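Apologies for my clumsy wording, but can you show me some protein sequence, whichever is easiest, together with the matching structure tokens, please?
=====
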Amino acid sequence: MQIAVLDDDVHQLDLLARVVGALGHACHRFSSGAALLQAVRQATFDLFLIDWELPDTSGLDVLRALRGQHRVRAPIIFVTHRDEERDVVQALSAGADDYVTKPVRSAELKARMLALLRRAYPAQEAGLQHGGFLLQPSSCLVLYEGQPIELKQREFALAHCLFQRLGQLLSRAYLMQTVWGRDTEVPTRTLDTHVSAVRSKLGLRPERGYRLVAVYGHGYRLEALDPAVAGSAEAHTA
């Protein structure tokens, strides 16, 4: 998982990075709200840890920008010295999923992160059902309305990632790190080839209720279409 950490205190960044690393996830460190919001334009993160007091803005404004302008759905945890009830209520009302006060207790933060990640991203072993599609990670098998569709291992990993984050714009870097591993250098055309194969083999077309679109300069998004739109497309092609 890709975890974004925002704090202007280098010691706190080090601590939070150690917590993230201990869970086996990649930590992306930011010391200003502007830097994080700029990164979100090109990268995809699975969870955010955000401080309230920042040199250029407030964590609350960053939270509102993530949930509003950038339409981020990933879990967000506030990690801050502010411990008044009104602060907690304000952050949660603005879209935060959890609130942790400093000084950070590492074991507690790990537990809260794991709980949010479990809810946001179901276990890899569990079957993933969307419409007529059922993805079974244990066997790398995709079924469409009960009929098996054969995918190669990385094609399945890509399809599972797209369906697990249905409707989210996923950066090319994120998809490549998720499917091939963050330490592997893969030509971008390899990703495009796999996306094309997944789109073709699964028939990700409006008549099946889905559309896999490329977003120039960013990445890909798998969209679930409104039944009326899918029905219209099916009638048009009949």
Q: What stands out?
A: The domain at 2-120 is CATH 3.40.50.2300 (Rossmann fold).
